[in-house]
Amino acid sequence: MPHIRIDYTANLEQTVQDSQLVRQLHQAAIATGVFPVWGVRTFAQPVAQYQVGNGDPGNGFLLVNVRIGPGRELAVRQRVLHALFEVVQQALAPQFAQGRLGCQIDLTEFDAALNSFQINLAGSDDRDEAVVCRRS
Fold it and tell me: Most CB contacts within 10 A, which of 35, 57, 77, 101?
């Protein structure tokens, strides 16, 4: 963790690509020092069918969902959220200057009792942590 998922209206495709938002958010999450490198995953996808505000096709929206494991202090979670939101704001600054754009970032903790996973990212920063399996 974290898992960073970016959903954005299709009219922002070029902006997301040009700004290298996926790479920048991924690197920013690592740079916080809160997460092991092997645990960071960042995904983005355009949403082809959308309505934003009054339905004008020029309106755009970008939503970033960040899921992390439980147990971190509120101040740490806020620091991560602010660091990632700053990256989003910088990436979208040219579009915000033109208007008709919204963005939001949410950080949530998953429930460890309702989460199972298996990971084998051998060769990562810490092999003992990079190969794990847990069932709830």
Answer: 101
CB-count exposure of residue 76 (10 Å: 0-12, 13-18, 19+): middle
CATH number at 78 reads: 3.30.429.10
Q: What is the pTM of this model?
A: 0.87
73 to 29, 70, 116, 132: CA distances (angstroms): 16, 9, 23, 24
- Residue-number span of the structural domain to which 119 is assigned: 3-134
Structure tokens at 17: 């690509």
The pLDDT assigned to 127 comes to: 55
pLDDT band at 130 (very low <50, low <70, confident <90, very high): low
